Amino acid sequence: MGRRVLITGGGSGIGKAMATTFAAEGARVLVTDMDGEALAQCPGNWLKMTGDASDPEHMQAVFTRISDEWGGIDVVCANAGIAGPTALVEDVEPEDFRRCLAVNLEGAFLAAKFAAPIMKAQQSGVILITSSNAGINGFPNRSPYSAAKWAVIGLMKTLAMELGPYGIRANAIAPGCVEGPRINGVIEREAKAKGTTPDIIRAGYEAGVSMRAFVTAQDVANMAAFLASDGARLVSGQVIPVDGHTENPDPKV
Hints:
Number of strands: 7
CATH class: Alpha Beta
Largest sheet: 7 strands, parallel
Shape: globular
Helix content: 40-55%
Radius of gyration: 18 Å
């Protein structure tokens, strides 16, 4: 049988691309997402669970199902996340800040918390956390998101230290701007806040990247597949950007 893979936030975007890529390699996949309609559009042979990755009861239920149906887990992609507000720090509401951290950071924590005992018993496993270029460089007007994505890197490095002796690897992927509805929404909100056009904001983002292009969800999924493979058997505790090389995280056009 193929590897057993969990992807949180797997109903669309990066998560769905990861699930599709692992499934194409013969893996059994379980995807979770808050969007039940998105999950309904996923292939029928995937296991699916609707719920909030930052809810301990939901995540406990996910891992109970994994144990019952698969008897273990080989790869956990802690990918669930939300964009959070687009605003200067003084204009961010505390509840919006907390919600952004809950989904992006607590969701990754819970995935690792429940995966660790299973993987320790197996003496094997891979945990991949989706961070962001914003977790390396910062991101003006996106303080909650940037704070969360920096925090998951600290979580990942600690997991690598705690779990490495048990044959478990942990890494983080740091995508740049990923083509799709989420970044389009961010660009539109930033353009509104700055009194300019989305095209100008998009051009500014692209100008700050050496390769002058946004990445795709598939680019990120390809990196996840590599990091989960035996080809990366001694890669652990690392942050791997998939961003075309960011020269300037806050370019001005």
